[in-house]
TrEMBL record:
DNA-binding region: 53-72
PANTHER family per UniProt: HTH-TYPE TRANSCRIPTIONAL REGULATOR RUTR, TRANSCRIPTIONAL REGULATORY PROTEIN
Keyword terms: DNA-binding, Transcription, Transcription regulation
GO molecular function, one term: transcription cis-regulatory region binding
One Pfam assignment: TetR_C_1
Ligase recorded as keyword: no
SUPFAM superfamilies, per the entry: Homeodomain-like, Tetracyclin repressor-like, C-terminal domain
UniProt organism field: Paenibacillus azoreducens
Designated name of the protein: TetR family transcriptional regulator
Residue intervals of the HTH tetR-type domain: 30-90
GO biological process: one example: negative regulation of DNA-templated transcription
Coiled-coil segments: none
The keyword Metal-binding is assigned to this record: no
Length: 258
């Protein structure tokens, strides 16, 4: 591989930007970085990230592991390329008349959709600031939401981090729930309904003074159908995050010299 254009970028990042020349030896026509990444994603989507290995990907493509290494030097590079490819979503057209709250709602939902489509995404540890092209496109889309707001660049990036972190945390919870349900867990195990009677006996007011009334009311296990005024925990949490940003904007406005 020709590393002259890589500079101080990690090799996997340079590969994502197309800054590395393809190998001069090996199966040039039948093999490409795109095909390798697509094959790895297909395995991860179907069987989970733990099933992805260089040998497994090479075998799925009908090539030797060594031929794969000529294109992608390590599994870490492959995982980085998979993450970047997973971020390849349709960039929404800008709509006039949308306020910043609705733009941020859509940004969080679109980010969460990436993680729901590829549940393995959050299994890859964060290793640094996003610097691959498709990942940066998502950051750019997020920054659209702050356009026109009285924020400096540091505040804008902190807000995008806040929104992205919320989407990631919800994505992890949803992934775990989906996997548990596929493994045979009942929906009542997540709402707690399956254990409502037992909890009312085990949770005592002396040991759990604040939890006890919540359990006894049925709110902890969503026991009383139709009584919960919060139909969607994800949307409720998102609105509270946006409330916090709105409050911050109002404080900044009040601090402006008059």
């Amino acid at each position: 591989m020709d590393n002259e254009k890589v500079g101080n970028l990690p090799l996997g990042v340079a590969l994502s930007w197309g800054l590395v020349q393809p190998p001069k030896r090996g199966p040039k026509r039948e093999m490409s970085i795109q095909k390798i990444v697509d094959a790895a994603i297909a395995i991860a989507d179907e069987e989970g990230l733990s099933s992805v290995s260089m040998s497994r990907v090479a075998s799925s493509l009908g090539f030797t592991t060594m031929s794969l290494y000529r294109y992608v030097p390590s599994k870490d590079d492959l995982l980085l390329l998979m993450m970047d490819a997973a971020c390849d979503m349709d960039i929404p057209e800008e709509e006039e008349g949308l306020d910043w709250r609705e733009k941020m709602r859509r940004y969080v939902r679109d980010t969460l959709a990436v993680m729901r489509k590829h549940p393995w995404y959050t299994d890859i540890p964060i290793s640094g600031v996003p610097i691959t092209p498709k990942n940066l496109e998502i950051v750019d889309i997020g920054l659209r939401c702050t356009r026109g707001l009285p924020l400096n660049d540091y505040e804008k990036m902190s807000i995008i981090l806040l929104l992205s972190s919320y989407a990631r945390s919800i994505g992890i919870v949803m992934k775990d729930m989906d996997q548990a349900l596929k493994a045979g867990k009942s929906p009542g195990s997540f709402s707690g309904l399956d254990y409502s009677d037992a909890l009312k006996k085990l949770v005592t007011p002396d040991r759990f003074p604040d939890l006890y009334p919540v359990v006894m009311s049925g709110a902890y296990t969503d026991e009383v159908q139709g009584a919960n005024p919060i139909p969607d925990d994800f949307e409720f949490g998102l609105e509270r995050v946006l409330d916090g940003i709105e409050y911050y904007l109002s404080v900044k406005k009040n601090m402006e010299p008059k």
